[in-house]
Amino acid sequence: MQDRQASPAIVDDSPTTKVMSFFKNILVSYFNDDGIKFAASTVVGVTLAVAFNPVDRALYLAQTTGRRFLSTANFSHPFEGFRAAMFQRIISGGSYFFLQGLAEAYIVPLLRSEGGANHYRERIGVGFCAGALNGLLLNPLSAIKSNMWSESERIRAIKTKLAPTEDKRHKNNLIKQQISFFKSSRAMCLAGGVAAFYRGLPAMVWRELQYSVPYEVTRYMLRIYLHDDKNKMRDFGCRVISDSIGGGVGAVAASVPNFVRSLQYHAPLHEKEPTVIECLITLNNKVMQAEYKFLTLRQTLCLGPGTGRVAISSALGQGLFKFVVDKLTDAQKQAQVEPSVKPTW
C-alpha cells in the first residue's frame, strides 16, 4: 500500500482569529497579576458608574439640601454631569477593589511572615491599607464631583427664582452654562488653590476606613460560616450574601463621616469648610430638635437608601471583580500554553 501524503494543516485566517490572537499576545506580553487586577477594577468602575450615578447624586443632594431621598427633585436630572465626571466615576467605582487585590498580594504575606497566619488581622490590614489609600487618592476627584453637583443645583435654583419678565439674557446665559469637570477644577483652583482639592480629606479617609475595615472583617466572618465547597451555586449565593451584609455594615459604620464629608464638600469655595466638630454639632442639633429623633437621624444619614446602595454595589463589584480576574487569569494561562502566532493583517 502506498503511504498517503499528509494533508497540509488548515490555517484559520479569519478576522475573528486574528483579533483573538492579537489580544492573547497582549495578555501574555503586557499583563501580569497586577495588570489583570487593574483591568478588572476598570470593568467594575464602568459598571458601577453607570448603574449607581443617579442614586449617588440623589444621596448627596438629600444630605446637603435636607430633602428626602425619594424627592423627585433629587432624581430630576439623574445623569447630569455624568459625562463630564465619567473619568472620576470609573476610577472611584473600581479603585477600592484594585487596592484590595494589591493589599492581599503584598500586605497579607508580610503580616504572615511577622506573626504567623491570623485571618482576622489580615482582613483588618487589607481593609486599613486599601481604605486609607483609597481615601487619599480619591479625595481630589470626589471634591471636584461634589462641587459640580453643588454648582449645578445653585444654577438651577437661580433659574427657578428668575421671573419671566426679568433679564432674559441673564437667564439664557445660565441655561447655556455647562458645569464640566475641567471648569469645576479650574474654579476650585482659582478660588482656593491646591488646598481646595484636599478639603474634606480627613473626613474622606475616616469614611473609607470606617467602611473598609468592617466590610473586610464582616464578609470574612460570614464566609467562614456560610461557605459550601460541595455546591458551587450555593457557595456563590453565600459570597453574594456575605459581600452584601459586609457592605451594609460598612455603610452604617461610615454614615457619620460620610455626612461630615458631604457638608465640607458642599461649603462654598470662597468660605472655609466647617470642621468635623462643627459638622457633628450640626447633626446633633438637628436630631435633638426633631420630634422623631431616630427617624430624623436615619433620614439625615440616609441609612436606609444609602445602606442599600452600598450593600448592592459591594456585592456586585466584588463578584464582578473576582469573575473578571478569574477569566483573564485563565485566558492568560491558556495563551501561554498555546503557541503564539502573530497575526498578519
List keywords for this structure.
single chain; 345 residues; mainly alpha; 75% helix; disordered C terminus
How would you describe the overall organization of this protein?
The chain is mostly helical. The chain has one domain: Mitochondrial carrier fold (Alpha/alpha barrel), CATH 1.50.40. It is built from twelve helices and no strands. Helix 1 packs across helix 12 (303-337), helix 3 runs antiparallel to helix 4 and helix 7 runs antiparallel to helix 8 (232-253). The longest helix has 43 residues, at 119-161. It starts with 14 loop residues before the first helix and ends in an 8-residue tail after the last helix. The model is unreliable at 341-345 (pLDDT under 50).
Concise structural overview:
The protein is mainly α. The chain has helices at 15-30, 33-65, 86-115, 119-161, 168-176, 181-192, 201-226, 232-253, 255-266, 276-288, 293-301, 303-337.
Layout of strands and helices, then pairs:
Layout: H1 15-30, H2 33-65, H3 86-115, H4 119-161, H5 168-176, H6 181-192, H7 201-226, H8 232-253, H9 255-266, H10 276-288, H11 293-301, H12 303-337
Helix pairs in contact: 1-12, 2-3, 2-12, 3-4, 4-6, 4-7, 7-8, 7-9, 8-12, 10-11
